[in-house]
Amino acid sequence: MSSNKWMYVLRGNGESHAAWSSRMRHELGPRLLSLGPSKLQLTVTEAPPPKLNLFPFKDRPIAIFNVYGDSDGPTRFSNVLRDAAGSVSGYEVEEAYPVNYEKAWSDGEPTPSPILLTMLQKKAGVPTEEFIARWHDGHTPLSLEIHPLWYYQRNVIREPLFEGSEHSDGIVIEACRTRGDLLNPTRFFGGAIKMVPNMLRVAKDINGFLDMKKTETYYATEYHLRS
After folding, report:
1. Which CATH code fits 3-226?
2. Residue 116: phi, psi to the nearest 5?
3. C-beta of residue 162 within 8 angstroms of C-beta of residue 78
């Protein structure tokens, strides 16, 4: 039996971050688990983003369910989630892990590091093939060289699961071992001597293939609900 991966992106509107996270974890998570996915992960904003940081974090609550299942399709999961928030999108994705942690905590416990969640939008005029090549063969190795990444989940969006899904070209879920490694620019960009040159290298790279006005970043928490 083959296993596919689908990602559902839910965006909050009016709920506090705490209420939003609680509903995602304690209401929708169990409902999805009852449908028998082979694996289920949740990435969710649990509080407003830190005020002092180098990322343009969005403040709107967001949640992403990574749903793994057999080739029969995601209809049963889509039916549960489509009306669960004001904005819901679903995608069939192709995932890769350029670097991955060794999970040593129980399902239902938070991953012991904050998550940098990025919704990618490619730059206008960049062909899809070039976008993928620059992302996979250029930006990914550069990120692994510069940043102290402990976890890098890369998802290429292949097609939307249902009408009304917002356009997106990719979803990246990253983590460093500690909050300081992620939010302290000196540590995130390779040390005091290398920080400025590395920031310039990254900026030049991402501006070549990403639309940074439409690309979104969030400060989030990850849960493995079934691993």
Report:
1. 3.30.70
2. -100, 110
3. yes
